[in-house]
């Protein structure tokens, strides 16, 4: 069953890589918000961005794409590892999958609440910075998937099916 799946995946490699890059690039919207509305204000006291209703809706939509992006990127690097073992691909898998810790344990809500000091939270404040650092670990993978998709699209056509 797995061999059949990986054969199909290989036949759709251009399409799956492109979709992975698109899904993962949406996380740049989240990182923009994190940087301008959370990190910089916390470090400098300067508020650069306050999301309005439209941007809040966009952030919610982006949040819903993160899990499919993590799964599709993990599939991409597992596929690449099957073709050729490279430590870089292992590293990207580790970076991608560290996001699960952030998604299910140290959430953005915790970070914002901790920084705003709206509630007494039993967890230490430095944990908020750990969550932020985990979020930024996506960047090398985002750039790699975009680079891969661009290279594949330059040299191949996207399959119709």
What can you tell me about this protein's structure?
- The protein is mainly α and 161 residues long.
- The protein is built from 9 helices and no strands.
- The two termini are 21 Å apart.
- The mean pLDDT is 86.
Keywords summarizing the entry:
161 residues; mainly alpha; elongated
Outline the secondary-structure elements.
Elements: H1 2-11, H2 13-25, H3 27-44, H4 53-83, H5 87-97, H6 99-104, H7 108-116, H8 126-136, H9 138-155
Helix pairs in contact: 2-4, 2-9, 3-4, 4-5, 7-8
Derived structural class: mainly alpha
Rg from alpha-carbon coordinates:
18 Å
The beta-strand count equals 0
Would you tell me the overall average pLDDT? 86
Short description:
This protein is mostly helical.
